[in-house]
Design goal:
The complex is a heterodimer of chains A (about 350) and B (about 300). With about 350 residues, chain A is of the alpha/beta class. Chain A has 14 helices and eight strands. In chain A, helix 3 links the parallel strand 2 and strand 3. The N and C termini of chain A lie far apart (about 65 Å). Chain B has two domains: about 140 residues, NAD(P)-binding Rossmann-like Domain (Rossmann fold, 3-Layer(aba) Sandwich); about 150 residues, Dihydrodipicolinate Reductase, domain 2 (2-Layer Sandwich). In chain B, the strands form two sheets. A six-stranded parallel β-sheet of chain B has the order 3-2-1-4-5-6, sandwiched between helices. In chain B, strands 7, 8, 9, 10, 11 and 12 form a six-stranded mixed β-sheet that branches. In chain B, helix 1 packs parallel to helix 2, helix 1 crosses helix 10 and helix 6 runs parallel beside helix 8. The longest helix of chain B is centred in the C-terminal third of the chain and has 28 residues. The radius of gyration of chain B is 19 Å and the shape is globular. The chains are: A alpha/beta (about 350), B alpha/beta (about 300). At the A-B interface, helix 14 of A face strand 7, helix 7, helix 8, strand 8 and strand 9 of B.
């Protein structure tokens, strides 16, 4: 097994978990800790990618370009990356982020829609930055479909394609199949991004590496959407036990987790009812807080909303369906009560 | 009343669905020609079967026929920029279904009458046709500080043109929400969902209000009236639920947001019914053509 490249996305995926409230100071502190520990790539943007500040997702408390600028000014060795979802972001925001100094863009689409990334992967290469394809909700498609989609991204010029377990719904066998299929089909790097809904974030990351993944994602203390991600510091510790030296300081990451990240978190991220329901139903992790809000507003159980979202095959960016489903379920309940 | 001769330029999916819509609805237009570039295309074959003139020489025959007064352009933005010049020189009215936007945006229930003398009008985008009327329905009652719309459509109903240029789609649609819908600022976000069986086009409009007092009942009534106006020419256009007010944290403070959830079921003419996004484009274009045709025919009557 070769030494994988680690991307920390606490400052992107983690923003979902704290309702997009990162401050410039917090970004600087986290970036400094990651950079000094030797993490090679640090992702910073709204959770939904550049320009994600919307009613649908939630607005950033601090404009994200200020946060990205703070990160770029703080790093000494790491590359700053951002996430980009076509349709939420446009070329204009991508250009602006590159102007500020990001060195990589991760272009994320639902895992059947790779052709939508062409415009943006090509632009990233024109602007001379690294382009990573991000195939979200990878549990919804078999390995060969993902490989075909990844191949499209490679043909547009991507430097790497990620299998993204957005719902935390994959088990190790699924991960191995998917990563292997991409490894066989592509001549570029293959990556894996985990969520912990089934308690498998680290296990799946190891499975991905065993299947040949070249790059993996983590977040400090697992601070990410929903059930969170594979904790960066735990990845480093696990790899070290496996005899793989990432040259990243475990002590540095542990201090960062305890002293800087823990105080920012509203509470520990655990696999509670809502997170397990989400992973089991195959629902996008960033829906969690929106589902909880709607459940409270309409006096529903979050699990029933999660189940319905899974049934309707909702994908990333469809937070509006949460409200739609909640209204429908509430209406049904009212009808039942009136019958009684 | 006599009829006005019209033609469709472009024999792809949009052009073909539009052909059926014009043939199905007896109105003031007489479809005399469908012009494409591929003699083997399904669209031209179907035109011939329907007894309509079919040409594979592009715009040529359209320009040669002086009787043709209205031309629906269902080609591409690039092709329309050239065609627009030629049609103008030939004195023909152009209804542009491409994103070229040579002429003003036209959304039938909102500004059809503002551009009644225009020689070239643009049909915005599918999401623009679906959501601009809803934003306008709110803004005619109370100022809309910011409008945001999420259009979720079946992956299968999104063609390669849109896929390769999502930027254009979002920009055009957001512009329409401001220029025609009346919002102060706007965002438009498309979502392509590959669920099987394919989902019907679903649109959510968020209209953030920054006024102290407003009459939500009046807004709801205005929205319901608008739904009725649109469904007159797009029968599958409806609300999924009664509009609600939801409070959201925004850069302008915690504001009431009118949330409108809409779906569009297609008529199933050439496209499957789930493709409401394509259906609303062709249905709106037909509506515009009808109005222009009857307007010019009336003017001719007066002249006689």
């Amino acid at each position: 097994m070769s030494i994988p490249r680690l991307t920390d996305t606490t400052l992107r995926d983690g923003s979902h978990a704290i309702s997009y409230s990162y401050t410039i100071e917090q970004v600087k502190d986290i970036v400094r800790g990651l950079d000094e520990a030797g993490v090679p790539v640090i992702e910073v943007s709204h959770g939904a990618g550049l320009n994600g500040s919307t009613i649908q997702q939630g607005f950033s408390k601090t404009p994200e370009f200020e946060l990205i600028k703070a990160a770029v000014e703080t790093v000494k060795q790491a590359k700053v990356a951002s996430l980009f979802v076509p349709g939420i972001g446009t070329s204009e925001e991508l250009r602006e982020a590159v102007e500020i100094g990001i060195k990589a863009i991760r272009v994320a689409v639902h895992c059947t829609e790779a052709d939508v990334t062409e415009q943006y992967i090509r632009l990233a290469k024109e602007l001379d930055i690294e382009a990573v394809g991000f195939l979200m909700m990878s549990h919804t498609q078999p390995a060969e479909v993902l490989a075909r989609q990844a191949k499209l991204m490679e043909s547009y010029g991507a430097d790497c394609v990620y299998v993204v377990d957005s719902a935390g719904a994959l088990v190790p066998q699924d991960v191995r199949e998917r990563v292997s299929a991409l490894k066989d089909a592509l001549s570029i790097d293959v990556g894996f991004h985990a969520h912990n809904n089934l308690g498998l974030a680290i296990g799946n990351t190891v499975a991905a590496l065993e299947a040949g993944a070249d790059q993996v994602d983590g977040t400090v203390r697992g601070l990410g959407a929903g059930a969170g991600n594979a904790p960066t510091e735990v990845i480093v510790a696990t790899l070290s036990k496996m005899g793989i030296d990432t040259a990243i300081s475990l002590a540095g990451l542990m201090d960062l987790s305890e002293e800087v990240v823990a105080p920012i978190m509203p509470g520990p991220i655990v696999i509670d009812r809502d997170n397990l329901a989400s992973g089991y139903a195959g629902v996008y992790n960033s829906f969690l807080l929106h589902v909880r809000k709607a459940a409270e507003q309409f006096d529903l159980n979050p699990t029933e909303i999660m189940e319905e979202l899974g049934k309707r095959q909702a994908i990333a960016g469809q937070e509006d369906w949460i409200l739609d489903i909640a209204l429908e379920l509430a209406e049904k309940k009212k009808d039942l009560q009136s019958v009684k | 009343m006599s009829k006005m001769k019209v033609a469709i330029l472009g024999s792809g999916n949009i052009g073909t669905d539009l052909m059926y819509k014009i043939l199905k609805n007896d109105g003031t237009m007489e479809l005399s020609l469908v012009a494409g570039i591929d003699p083997e295309s399904d669209g031209l074959r179907r035109a011939r079967e329907a007894g309509i003139g079919a040409s594979h020489e592009g715009i040529k025959e359209i320009l040669e026929d002086q009787e043709i007064k209205i031309v629906f352009d269902a080609t591409s933005a690039k092709a329309h920029i050239k065609a627009a010049e030629q049609l103008r020189a030939a004195g023909k009215m152009a209804v542009d279904l491409t994103p070229a936007a040579v002429g003003p945006y036209l959304v039938p229930p909102v500004n059809l009458n503002d551009h009644i003398e225009a020689k070239n009008v643009n049909m915005v985008s599918c999401a623009g046709q679906a959501t601009t009327p809803l934003v306008h329905a709110v803004s005619r009652v109370v100022p809309v500080h910011y409008a945001e719309m999420i259009a979720t459509v079946a992956s299968r109903a999104i063609g390669p043109g849109t896929r390769q240029n999502v930027d254009e789609f979002t920009r055009t649609t957001a512009n329409s929400l401001v220029k025609v819908g009346g919002a102060r600022t706007a965002r438009a976000i498309p979502v392509f969902n590959p669920a099987e069986p394919p989902i019907m086009m679903a649109n959510t409009v968020y209209a953030a209000i920054n006024e102290k007092d407003f009459d939500f009942d009046a807004i709801k009534k205005s929205i319901n009236d608008m739904i009725e106006d649109v469904s007159e020419y797009v029968p599958g256009y409806r609300l999924k639920a009664e509009p609600i007010i939801d409070y959201r944290d925004t850069p302008w403070g915690r504001l009431p947001v009118v949330v409108i959830m809409n779906e569009v079921e297609g008529a199933g003419d050439y496209f499957p019914k789930y493709a409401g996004n394509l259906d609303i484009m062709t249905a709106s274009a037909r509506k515009v053509g009808e109005l222009y045709a009857s307007h010019s025919l009336q003017k001719e009557e007066v002249r006689k």
